[in-house]
Structures are given as C-alpha cells and as structure tokens.
Amino acid sequence: MTEVSIQPADQSDRRSENRHRMIMRAGLLDQVGKPFFCLIKNVSSSGIQVKLYTSAAHTGKVVIRVADENPIEGQILWIRDGSAGISFDESIDSATFLRLQQKLRPERRRAVPRVKATSYAALLVAGRTIQAVLRDVSYMGAKVTTSRWLEAGTSISIRLPDLPEMRGSVRWTEGSDSGIAFETPIPMHVISQWIEGRLRVATCS
User: Fold this and answer.
1) Tens of pLDDT along 8-47?
2) Which phi and psi angles does 91 have, rounded to 5°?
3) Which CATH code for domain 115-204?
4) Containing H/E element for 177?
C-alpha cells in the first residue's frame, strides 16, 4: 500500500515512526464519555489520522476503539478541515487496525464498533410489528431487546425515531437480545448526527 505522512505541517521529518499506511476503516473516538464515529485514514505504530463527523471533538485526551479490539488511549494533537491527527500514548502493532479476524471468530461478531444508545424501536417481522428497545447502534447494525424471540436469519425492517426505516436481518439471538445487520449501511454523517442528538437529549433530561 501507499505510504504517506499524517504530520500536518513539517514534512522534513522522515523518521520511520511517522510513516503511515493508508486505510479506510470505521473507528470510535471517546472524549469524556462522549462517543464519536470516525473514519481511520492513515495508521502507524505511533498514531493515526482520522476523518471526523462531528464538530464536538477537540484537542486533548481521547480513547480510540476499532471493532472488538481493546481500546487505545491517545491525544488529539490537531484538528483541521474535518480531519484530526492522534498520537497514541503507547506504541501499538499497527496490524490491529488492519486485521479482520474478528469476522471469522464467533465470539467476536463485530467488525465495526457500536455506541451504547437506549431508544424505543419497532421491528416489522413477517407483517407483524414488534416493539423493541435499542441497546447499541452503528452505521452497520444494532442490538435490540424484544419480548419475542427472533430467529437468526429472519428478514426484518427496523424503525428508530428520527431515522428512515431500515431493512436488515437478524444475525444472532441470545435470550431476549438480538443483533441486527442493516441491509444498507446508514451514512456515517447521518448516524453520527443522530447519536449526538440522542446524547444531547439524555444530557438535558
């Protein structure tokens, strides 16, 4: 893959730790308990560059999550034109951001991190409407709790407040909880704005 540097100003520093591989992968930033979706564009062992979908992120301490990997602590060093540069507190194996092994392991279902969010939801299953409670969500899918058991593989439509109806399928069920994969991903900026709106409502209530 093409190698680029994410340093925002000084391009004279060519040290290996500042060289990055270009990728496109969804991530989740957390600042003071507020989650923000982002798109990871460049990665090295010492930091990443991300595309932001929020104006609420700021320079300072941040926690980065990718898929089901362990959270990584770091610092947002700069924000410019909708992008941010993040330095890790400790060097990591950059392959963490590249591997997709969690898709192959049943105990690690998620390739995209999800945000905990509580909301009412309605599921349309075989012409019947089932009331549900949203537990977490990403642009690729959601976890819901229902009073009726849902069979894996079932085609459904899900309605969430202030979002268009989305078609999907049940990927897994454990008791009253089910994981839903959306047929068409929600645009990243749409789900990011929706989550910010839910967080503001929760703060004000």
Assistant:
1) 444 444 444 444 566 678 899 999 888 999 999 888 889 9
2) -65, 145
3) 2.40.10.220
4) strand 177-182
